[in-house]
Design brief:
The protein is mostly helical and 83 residues long. It has one domain (3-82). 93% of the residues lie in helices and 0% in strands.
Amino acid sequence: MKTKQLLAKLGALLNADLKTQQEECKSIKKLLKKLKKKERELRADLARTHIPSEREEISSKLEIIYAQRTKGIKRLRELGKAN
């Protein structure tokens, strides 16, 4: 193979990797927005609810969402540094 062909193949591979990273970033951002919306709804429910068992259930859901959002943000930053 000639040098131009090898460089073209290498460029195609690198661009494909970049494209998949960009798609992953988009999907993570979309999920983070949904999680933030859900977190806001649960916080509002928590403020309205006075039943201890329901408050505990909502609080546990909030903890899970917070952890997932933290993981998503961390992954998004990793992808940003890779670019």
